[in-house]
Write a structure and sequence with these properties.
Strand content: 5-15%
Number of helices: 11
Strand order of the largest sheet: 2-3-1-4-5-6
Number of strands: 6
Largest sheet: 6 strands, mixed
Shape: globular
Structural class: alpha/beta
Length: 289
């Protein structure tokens, strides 16, 4: 029997199956090698973090995108070796009744970094540009107001030349998203990740894609551009995301041996993504991704 990485259970008496053990060993070795490929770049993240601390700089990284697009796993990969005293991962839940009466941005601004700190938002204020309007969690007026004002908010954040904002949109294909949902359904270690909204994500695929297009069109600016991460391949998405972050701020001690060139098949500019989406719409009558 050959080892199947998508299987959630080891077969009975697998210890007595040489073919299974050999295939499992090859898979484990390959997986270990991919993890080791990340290590030198993770070490660079520590250097970047020290630079931020030394010069009192602030780094905000947004991780947005569809459900099961790899945001959480990438965040864990980025922060694995970082100094936990100087970074925070923020994943805000449903706003309270009081917060619903306040400025949408307020509860996010309250989580912004202090000098020398990194804050990683696992979903950000851009929930109002995608999730909330698709599922009716905000009114059309609230959505329109957000799209009209968000660039001004971000420009104000960045007037402080000590702050860097990185906006990452994780783009997973419909087929891969469905495959990941199926794994979550069948894996007791992953079932907690599956929410009622997740179960509706495939049904609302086209609506999300429309909102993605308008978000990139209206909110990718010269001072706060979006980078679109092709995330069907988790390893490539994680590696290229780390490179994108490392290229965002010059820092002391940067390795001269490592290749920091970003793979433009994985990290796509908003301009390229929009052009690709328009081509798909013209050819197929709708957006495909």
């Amino acid at each position: 029997m050959i080892y199947d990485p998508s299987s959630n259970n080891l077969p009975e008496n697998y210890q007595d199956d040489p073919e299974f053990l050999e295939s499992f060993g090859r898979y484990a070795t390959q997986k270990h090698m991919l993890k080791m490929q990340l290590v030198p770049y993770q070490a660079e993240l520590i250097k970047l973090q020290r630079h931020l601390e030394r010069y009192g700089r602030k780094l905000i990284i947004l991780f947005d995108g569809r459900d099961a697009s790899g945001k959480g796993g990438t965040i864990r990969c980025i922060t694995r070796y970082m100094n936990e005293k100087h970074y925070r991962t923020v994943a805000l839940g449903k706003p309270s009744e009081e917060q619903k009466t306040e400025l949408h941005m307020k509860r996010y601004i309250e989580q912004f970094p202090s000098a020398g700190e990194v804050v990683l938002f696992d979903r950000s204020w851009y929930n109002r540009a995608m999730v909330e309007p698709v599922f009716g969690f905000c009114s059309q007026q609230q959505y329109t107001k957000f799209i009209a004002n968000v660039n001004t908010y971000e420009h104000n954040f960045l007037e402080d030349d000590k702050t860097t904002l990185i906006k990452l949109y994780f783009s997973v294909s419909k087929k891969e998203q469905n495959s990941r949902f199926e794994r979550r359904k069948n894996d007791p270690l992953r079932q907690w990740k599956l929410s009622e909204i997740d179960l509706q994500a495939q049904e609302y695929w086209d609506e999300f894609t429309e909102k993605k297009y308008h978000m990139l069109l209206k909110t990718s600016t010269d001072y706060a551009p979006w980078s679109v991460i092709r995330s069907d391949n988790k390893h490539k998405a994680r590696l290229e995301t780390i490179k994108t972050i490392l290229n965002s701020i010059p820092y002391h001690g940067r390795s001269r041996e490592l290749d920091f060139t970003v793979d433009d098949r994985v990290v796509i500019t908003a301009k390229r993504e929009l052009a690709s989406m328009r081509y798909q719409r013209n050819k197929y009558g709708k957006f495909r991704r």
